[in-house]
Amino acid sequence: MTACPCGSGRDYDACCGPLLARKAKAETAEALMRSRYTAFTKGDVDYLEETLRPDTRDDFEREAVAEWSRESTWQGLEIRSTEAGGPADDKGVVEFVAHFSFQGKPQVHHETSVFAKDGDTWYYVDGKMGPPPRTVQKVGRNDPCPCGSGKKFKKCCGAAA
């Protein structure tokens, strides 16, 4: 038994192995994300290209991806959050952090990725570097205080502002 590189805690043959062997398809956006990370660790550039949505493959730089995969020492994957992307969904978002060393220097790849499903197949669509933007909810002075006290914001936490 070999632990899967994706960090799921499962055996490779019960996790990403069947996907990279093309014997199964990812059931969720997160499963595809994990399998793509594993493909980087294994140098499976074909899988990385195949799991790109077909209309986004034009700018796939095969040699650059192969070099990055081959020259990196992959150290772990953290899934920070997922939004939708389940078996019944058509779209999903996965925020992840991949830890690796490139040319002996520790690196972190933090990305929020968008996935789309066509039929029964999930594809990677696009990603943005870094965490997703924070959203801040504005509280009006006469609104209930978000601390849960039951008082108006202006008479509670907003009194000091």
From TrEMBL:
Gene3D superfamilies (UniProt xref): 3.10.450.50
Pfam families: SEC-C, YchJ_M-like
Name of this protein: UPF0225 protein YchJ
Superkingdom in the source lineage: Bacteria
Domain YchJ-like middle NTF2-like residue range list: 28-127
Listed PANTHER family: ADENYLATE CYCLASE-ASSOCIATED CAP C-TERMINAL DOMAIN-CONTAINING PROTEIN, UPF0225 PROTEIN SCO1677
